[in-house]
Amino acid sequence: MKKLIGLVTMFLLVCLSAFAQGKAREGQQHGSKPEVGGGYIPKRGPAPAKAAPHAAAQAPAENRKFNDKAGHPEAPHVHTNGQWVGHDTGRNDANYHLDHPWEHGRFTGGIGKGHVWRLGGGGPGGFWFGGFGFSVAPFDVGFVDGWLWDSDQIVIYDDPDHPGWYLAYNARLGTYVHVMYLGPH
């Protein structure tokens, strides 16, 4: 009888432990959602930036700060409420000026929330997905250090301020960069 009671007690302890672990996991999955990334996809791209003062539009990269809250990335990013952080320098930003916008044509593969693409390889100088090639703007290369070039999911948005550029948003990280369409790959 003592063996049976001991066995039942052991069984109950194991079940209780498994139940507690399941509740903890459920709290992580359904608890507080991240404010940046975590698979969130913005409904739309950023609105055109309000006219920035000439000096701010020419601010050196090392003076720009993007981590607007503790735990947010030090890169342009999108909050899960749809706020685009860092898209504020306006049309006169010399870092994104192109003499020949859309010199390789326009991207026709699908733009916005309904078109999620999985990166197929490459790196900042040239990457591809779905038969389309892109490159990251030289000014933004420092913001893609954590991107997984062979698996991350991205969404392409029009850039309302910089002709010839698109914005590639990384759903896993919640960050985005300016990209140029290079044509079919």
The ordered string of helix (H) and strand (E) elements is HHEEEEEEEEE
Structure classification? alpha+beta
Q: Note the total helix count.
A: 2
* Rg, Å, rounded: 23 Å
What is the first-to-last residue Cα distance?
Answer: 73 Å
Low-confidence stretches: 12-29
Biggest sheet, open or closed, and with what strands and sense? Answer: 7 strands, antiparallel
Strand content is 15-25%
Mean of all residue-level pLDDT scores: 85
Helix share, percent: 10-25%
- Tally of DSSP β-strands: 9
Label the overall shape: globular
Question: Oligomer, anyone?
Answer: single chain
Widest sheet, order of strands: 3-7-8-9-6-5-4
Describe this structure in words.
The protein has 185 residues and is an alpha+beta fold. Helices cover 18% and strands 21% of the residues. It is built from two helices and nine strands; from the N terminus they run H-H-E-E-E-E-E-E-E-E-E. The chain has helices at 2-30, 54-57; strands at residues 77-78, 84-85, 116-118, 122-123, 126-129, 132-136, 153-158, 166-170, 175-184. A seven-stranded antiparallel β-sheet has the order 3-7-8-9-6-5-4, with no helix packed on it. Strands 1-2 form a two-stranded antiparallel ribbon. The longest helix is centred in the first third of the chain and has 29 residues, at 2-30. The protein is globular.
